[in-house]
């Protein structure tokens, strides 16, 4: 999982490489053997593959990073350590100022910034295990997310057209 910065100079990506760089304790080994993505963290590197920097260090899966339109922030999903839920997160591209934008205690994922940088769109199954809906949340994290779609089944993987006026997403 990875994405290019708007200017093409950086790539943000998820990797479980940290699990191979140190000795895991017994609980970590068990979690990693059950699901290697458990060790995924967010990294950033130059577009040529050099200067790799780890940005997150939380136990459990961090993945699906996307840059804001101005290239100053990254959004991603952070799974709970047991993998049962995921919340939407943002941070500066140096890994500082990590903020949790959602507290839905559901599977919230596929965040994507609006070109204005003022809010993000994402997918969540807050309304049932097999019912994924789209929501908007303020990038500052000061408000509750607002529901966008209302159809049974899957509405997910949203993004914005660069003009910010259109939102494509797959739906069943």
Notable characteristics:
4-stranded antiparallel beta sheet, 172 residues, 5% helix, mainly beta, globular, 1 helix, single chain
Walk me through this protein's architecture.
The chain has 172 residues and is mainly beta. Helix content is 5%, strand content 34%. The chain contains 1 helix and 12 strands. The strands form 3 sheets. A 4-stranded antiparallel beta sheet has the order 1-2-3-4, with no helix packed on it. Strand 7 and strand 8 form a beta hairpin.
Overall form: globular
* Proportion of beta-strand residues: 25-35%
Helix- and strand-based class? mainly beta
Termini separation comes to 24 Å
Strand order of the largest sheet: 1-2-3-4
Give me the count of strands: 12
Low-confidence parts:
none
Describe the largest sheet. Answer: 4 strands, antiparallel
> What pattern of helices and strands is seen along the backbone?
EEHEEEEEEEEEE
Mean pLDDT equals: 96
Radius of gyration: 16 Å
Note the total helix count.
Answer: 1
User: Oligomeric status of the shown chains?
Assistant: single chain
Helicity level, as a percent range?
A: under 10%
Would you summarize the structure shown here?
With 172 residues, the chain is mostly beta strands. The protein has one helix at residues 26-34; strands at 2-4, 10-15, 41-46, 53-54, 62-67, 73-79, 86-92, 99-100, 108-113, 119-124, 133-138, 146-147. The strands form three sheets. The protein has a four-stranded antiparallel sheet with strand order 1-2-3-4, with no helix packed on it.
Please write out the topology.
Layout: E1 2-4, E2 10-15, H1 26-34, E3 41-46, E4 53-54, E5 62-67, E6 73-79, E7 86-92, E8 99-100, E9 108-113, E10 119-124, E11 133-138, E12 146-147
Antiparallel strand pairs: 1-2, 2-3, 3-4, 5-6, 6-7, 7-8, 9-10, 10-11, 11-12
